[in-house]
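Spend some time on the protein that follows and explain the fold to me:
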Amino acid sequence: MEQLSGTAFTAPRETNKRSWLYRILPSVKHYPFKKIENGLITHNWNEEEPNPNQLRWKPFDLPSNEQQIDFVQGLATICGAGDARLRHGIAIHVYSCNVSMIDKAFCNSDGDFLIVPQKGTLFIKTEFGKMCVAPNEICVIQNGMRFSVEVEETSRGYILEVFDNHFVLPYLGPIGANGLANPRDFQTPVAWFENVKGIHFKIILKFQGNLFESHQDHSCFNVVAWHGNYSPYKYNLENFMTINTVSFDHADPSIFTVLTCPSLKPGTAIADFVIFPPRWSVAENTFRPPYYHRNCMSEFMGLIKGNYEAKKEGFQPGGASLHNLMIPHGPDFDCYNNAVNEELKPVRVAEGTMSFMFETCFGLAVTKWANKTCEKLDNEYYKCWQTLEDNFSKLNV
């Protein structure tokens, strides 16, 4: 019997997180951890000079047929801020893999992983049981939980890692009891175990931004039963109850928040996970696309499928964009031009599309891999706004 604590023992009862795991062998039975190469994972936020420009990446590479890359080997850090040792900050990664993890588990001592598959279904084995997570679904593997990822095809996706707290549902305020992501739609695994011994089983540990490896002679997935409120979970984005204006003006994108990791500052998130699902647009006398914006929060966007409504060209599935603190951004010329000239009748927007945003209160530093090595940064991104015109001067005022 082993307890896994996700909060301090003395955390308030309403936020106290822990589970009891009934294991065949305790997790302490392993050989010492030794430092291994980090690959493309980093918490070094000072390796590149700050870049205040709008940034966009073309789709990140998938492994070739000649490569054998599993989930851990395919992790690459794009940007982040803060310090895992102080339990304050975030990191944003992508993963790209084409083989399953065999006799190997990964454990993150630094924070929680919110995983967003973009291509390929992930078959995730955890100490709590199994989860199947397909594109247009997400899962959260919380701090300290061991897991292994199996794939049946070349796969790619995004990861938001938070160091501070755990993800929770946002407060609904005057929306009331129902709306956005409903608790009933989150799924946790049922217990599953394998009693496998006499093997060389690896544990890869992410600890203070570095990777370490240990081994043991048995599978870590030996939990026969468990109970508690600290576990991995998954969610299907199609179950999100979308809320939007039915009169006029543009509601803020916070109405699309699925999960949030709150900070100590009221109403300000360490990180929000926000989606832009298919929905009706009916606002009258309103510029309907996302408005032009400068924000005290940083906005990292990714695209799971389809075309993002504000930039139908250039922003592709498997790619990303970053608009850092107070950096102006908004719809490109084509989106703007269509929006101001189209008839304002009820229309479906984002049909066949799912884009998302990781929004954070931190200014995000971009890694050397994301800025240079991956060679996916679109240096012509700024051009999508250069044909915007001065229409005011055409008026006789």
